[in-house]
UniProtKB/TrEMBL annotation:
Similarity comment: Belongs to the bacterial ribosomal protein bL32 family.
Gene3D superfamilies: Single helix bin (1.20.5.640)
GO cellular component: ribosome
Annotated source species: Alkaliphilus hydrothermalis
Residues spanning the membrane: none
UniProt lineage: Bacteria, Bacillati, Bacillota, Clostridia, Peptostreptococcales
Swiss-Prot/TrEMBL keywords: Ribonucleoprotein, Ribosomal protein
Name of the featured protein: Large ribosomal subunit protein bL32
SUPFAM superfamilies tied to this protein: Zn-binding ribosomal proteins
Length: 59
């Protein structure tokens, strides 16, 4: 069975674990219908449009 020859240092351990935490924040775009800020690939909360079609009826 394979056994490590030396103890993994705190630095190497943390460098390995840091690769999983490199996430990029989601960009906010403007709705093409009402020009309000919204998350991409989601229905606009203010006008209810998604891909130029009204999906949710708003007041």
């Amino acid at each position: 069975m394979a056994v490590p020859k030396r103890k993994t240092s705190k630095s190497k351990k943390n460098m390995r674990r840091a690769a999983n935490s490199k996430y990029v924040a989601v960009g906010i775009i403007n709705c093409p219908q009402c020009h309000e800020p919204k998350l991409p690939h989601r229905v606009c909360k203010s006008c209810g449009f998604y891909k130029n079609k009204e999906v949710v009826e708003t007041k």
